[in-house]
Amino acid sequence: MSTQWVITAAAERITLDAAKKGETTFTVTNPDRRADRAVFDVVVGDGADPAWFSVEDPQRLIKPAASASYLVKAAVPAGAPPGVYEIQGRVFSADEAPEESSVLSPRVLLEVPVPPAPAKRRIPWWVFVVAGLVVLVIATVIWLVVPGGKPGTPTPSPTPTGGTSPTGPVSAAPPAAGYVVMPAIVGMSLPDAELLLINQGLKLGTVHYRYAPSGNHTVYIQYVPPQYTVRKGTAIEIDALETINPPTLVSPAAETHLARTARPRIEWKQAETWETRWSVQVTYERCGQFGGCQVGAKPISTPETLRAATTVTSDRFYDVPPNLDFNTGGDGLHDSGRVYYQVCPVDLYGNNTQRCLSFSLYLDK
């Protein structure tokens, strides 16, 4: 059985210094009951180059219920085009193919800023002094050469009509044909943000949902920063804050009595179409020889990520293997047959929403 790795990112962005270098950390946890060798690498998004990133000690042995931190260093070359790039950490078991056991972290952004404009060269002060002397000499020559000893009265220059005063503000040059300026949409509702993008000649791209208790369909991150020049028609990728409903139990019905040898398949539904992962926890009720029961003393399953469902009406399910011990053990405890289940949605970034479906079943002796 493949290790169900858990991977998290220490930050949402990598900040580059003046030399275009930065770093961030990913944490990999082994929730299983056996040690396993983890291999960590970096998966880059569109436009980014894997050569920009390096990982210290990418392969490590991680003990059960232990974690390891991986330092990822970024070094962006001087000629890299400015923009916002995304990366993900990936972990998989060394003894298995990556496609069989790999797990991706939440996405981390890397912003390569536009290089600053070259500083204007300052003209030395003595150049102005020399220029003034030249003007003075020319004026003196004109005074001596022009008949009457003085030049004629100059004709006043015409007063400009309209336009901006030379001392007024100077606006930035408009974008080139076929390009528009990215507006600021963070904090806006999704409908308002989409309307603004359309009016600007852009469109709403992929929306990644992040759980928040007070989320109300608002834009949390825009992957193209405000004031960036982008081509018309570009699909703008964003993160949005959303609340979520607890899953709904489909089968079996809560408190159902099943045979001891049954392998119950737990099925549920989720109202939100964007939700694709759930954390499932199974615990048994254990009792003493003379009564007195407690829940959670013998967990048989650490939280694990389930496969994605395709539509809101598709059933989500999990097969629970039986592992009951009805005989009194050395500790004087035995399983009562009551099994507790908890199914909690987990968002794209690995955040457990705590909006859970909780119920119990009975496996009779």
What topology emerges from the helices and strands here?
Blueprint: E1 6-9, E2 13-14, E3 21-30, E4 36-44, E5 53-55, E6 59-62, E7 66-75, E8 83-93, H1 98-101, E9 103-104, E10 108-112, H2 125-145, E11 179-181, H3 190-199, E12 203-211, E13 218-222, E14 229-231, E15 235-242, E16 248-251, E17 257-258, E18 265-269, E19 277-288, E20 291-301, E21 316-319, E22 333-346, E23 357-363
Parallel strand pairs: 2-10, 12-15, 17-23
Antiparallel strand pairs: 1-3, 3-7, 4-6, 4-8, 5-7, 8-9, 8-10, 11-14, 13-15, 16-18, 18-21, 19-20, 19-22, 22-23
Description:
10% of the residues lie in helices and 40% in strands. It has helices spanning 98-101, 125-145, 190-199; strands spanning 6-9, 13-14, 21-30, 36-44, 53-55, 59-62, 66-75, 83-93, 103-104, 108-112, 179-181, 203-211, 218-222, 229-231, 235-242, 248-251, 257-258, 265-269, 277-288, 291-301, 316-319, 333-346, 357-363. It folds into 3 domains: 6-112, Immunoglobulins (Immunoglobulin-like), CATH 2.60.40.10; 179-242, Trypsin Inhibitor V, Chain A (2-Layer Sandwich), CATH 3.30.10; 248-363, Sandwich (Immunoglobulin-like). Mean pLDDT is 79; it is low at 148-171 and 297-312. It is mainly beta. It has 3 helices and 23 strands. Strands 2, 4, 6, 8, 9 and 10 form a 6-stranded mixed beta sheet that branches. Strands 17-23-22-19-20 form a 5-stranded mixed beta sheet, with no helix packed on it. A 4-stranded antiparallel beta sheet has the order 1-3-7-5, with no helix packed on it. A hairpin with a 2-residue loop joins strand 19 (277-288) and strand 20.
